[in-house]
Design brief:
Elements: E1 2-4, H1 7-19, E2 24-29, H2 35-47, E3 50-55, H3 75-84, E4 89-91, H4 95-98, H5 124-139, E5 143-147, H6 151-163, E6 169-173, H7 193-214, H8 220-232, E7 237-246, E8 259-268, E9 271-280
Parallel strand pairs: 1-4, 2-3, 2-5, 3-4, 5-6
Antiparallel strand pairs: 7-8, 8-9
Helix pairs in contact: 5-6, 7-8
The site of adenosine monophosphate (AMP) has 16 residues, from helix 2 and strand 5.
């Protein structure tokens, strides 16, 4: 396994793999890897002859006051995990390799980015679209792997691939959860014992919503009210949003119909957590 922060070197290695007829699988991450990331890595490994994982805590997708500085970083551990999976290459660029001093070009998606998390994290998806475009241009993968955990990000990147004519497949894989059903996230390590107990209410509220829909409830506001009640019964939880939306355009749905996404963002203490579920009515 090669670990490199050099764009030129990475391009040369990938060119060689392509000349050998290998398909290129790519998993972009911010590192501090857990089983959620590894599920993407394993699938890439299964489907592609040459697998690249990028580890880059992208400053452009963090807003002022967010956790860019203290975001967990652990390259040694990540390297070991990826070596065990037989990954071919880790791309681990420094900030100034991706964003040199005079950097001035950004990529912005104009419809989906203002919904859900976009209402509260201004500029976040612009940062995501910019870095992923750069990574796609450096690596030129055949397939790229993303998690449903960040559902909005995944659909925005699908749109980016189609609107900017990238020639690659976007794969979206299911959310991996811990034993207690909390969605795995690099940020879970910020949680105290008590906060973690409160955080379990995110998934319980999604399951509650699903069961209400299965029982015939068709009023989104009623469902959201029941979810709020459950989450707010936990100390230290503060809801940023709970939305029931169309899975493609992310528009709010007042009435439950067809296949839909229930998505939420909740602060537990100072930690912002997101989770979601797709339900068919
Ligand atoms: P991140 O390092 O947080 O930028 O995540 C890198 C990729 O891993 C993204 O496509 C995430 O959606 C995905 N991911 C993060 N957590 C999970 C999880 N619990 N299950 C599945 N995929 C995940």
């Amino acid at each position: 396994m090669i670990v490199s922060g050099s764009i030129d070197k990475v391009r040369k290695i990938i060119k060689k793999a392509k000349q050998q007829g290998k398909t290129i699988g790519f998993v972009p991450t911010m590192g501090s890897l857990h089983c959620g990331h590894m599920s993407l890595v394993k699938r890439a490994k299964k489907e592609c002859g040459f697998v690249i994982v990028s580890i880059f805590v992208n400053p452009a997708q963090f807003g002022p006051g967010e956790d860019f500085k203290c975001y967990p970083r652990n390259l040694d551990k990540d390297e070991n995990l990826l070596r065990q999976e037989g990954i071919d290459l880790i791309f681990y660029p420094k900030d100034d390799v991706m964003y040199p001093r005079d950097y001035s070009v950004y990529v912005e998606e104009g419809q989906l980015s203002s919904k859900l998390c976009g209402q509260f994290r201004s500029g976040h998806f612009k940062g995501v679209c910019t870095v992923v475009t750069k990574l796609f241009n450096i690596i030129v993968p055949d397939s790229a792997y993303f998690g449903q955990k960040d559902y909005q990000q995944a659909v925005i990147l699908k749109r980016l691939v189609s609107d900017l004519n990238f020639s690659l497949k976007v794969r979206i894989l299911p959310i991996i959860r811990d034993k207690d059903k909390l969605a795995l996230s690099s940020r879970n390590r910020y949680l105290s014992e008590i906060e973690r107990q409160s955080a379990l209410s995110l998934y319980s509220s999604l399951l509650l919503a699903k069961s209400l829909i299965k029982k015939g409830q068709r009023d989104s506001n009623e469902i959201i009210a029941a979810m709020k009640k459950l989450i707010l019964s936990k100390k230290t939880a503060k809801i940023e949003y709970i939305k029931i939306v169309d899975i493609q355009n992310l528009n709010n749905l007042d009435k439950i119909k067809g296949k839909l996404l229930i998505a939420l963002a909740v602060y537990v203490g100072r930690t912002r957590l997101i989770d979601n579920i797709i339900v068919s009515a």
